[in-house]
Amino acid sequence: MADNPPLSLTPDFTKCGGLIAAVAQDAVTGEILMLAFMNEESYNKTLETGEVHYWSRSRKELWRKGNTSGEIQKVKELYLDCDLDAVVVKIEQVGGVACHTGRRSCFFHKHVGQGQFVIQD
């Protein structure tokens, strides 16, 4: 396999109104825990601190995941997609809860057919 030299890349925050999609994935299990958004400030703060920061669209403010709950997300790996407008952050979910509802994952509504869903913990 040939050497794979590092590339100097940054997300393109101009495509979607200054935001990029950020998927939080458990670094050990591969489980998708949540989807949120990052602006340039939250992306840079994530890289700087090693803890995931997001942009709250509803509150219109920067937030460090777990700032009030203690359920912080420690960055293990970060991947930028091919279009430079989304990231996957492989994390260690401290405390085990990623969702504001108190569940491990935000994705707990399971489709069971004909537009019907059940709660799957």
Unreliable segments of 5+ consecutive residues = none
Q: How would a textbook summarize the main sheet?
A: 4 strands, mixed
Strand order, largest beta sheet: 2-1-6-5
- Class by SSE composition: mainly beta
What would you say this structure looks like, in words?
With 121 residues, this protein is mainly β. The protein has one domain: Ubiquitin-like (UB roll), CATH 3.10.20. Helix content is 8%, strand content 39%. It is built from 1 helix and 8 strands, in the order E-E-H-E-E-E-E-E-E. It has one helix at 40-49; strands spanning 20-26, 32-38, 53-56, 61-64, 73-80, 86-93, 109-113, 116-119. The strands form 3 sheets. A 4-stranded mixed β-sheet has the order 2-1-6-5. Strand 3 (53-56) and strand 4 form a beta hairpin. It starts with 19 loop residues before the first strand and ends with a strand. The model has no long low-confidence stretch (mean pLDDT 95).
Chain-wise SSE layout:
Blueprint: E1 20-26, E2 32-38, H1 40-49, E3 53-56, E4 61-64, E5 73-80, E6 86-93, E7 109-113, E8 116-119
Parallel strand pairs: 1-6
Antiparallel strand pairs: 1-2, 3-4, 5-6, 7-8
Features:
single chain; 121 residues; mainly beta; Ubiquitin-like (UB roll); four-stranded mixed beta sheet; 1 helix; 8 strands; globular
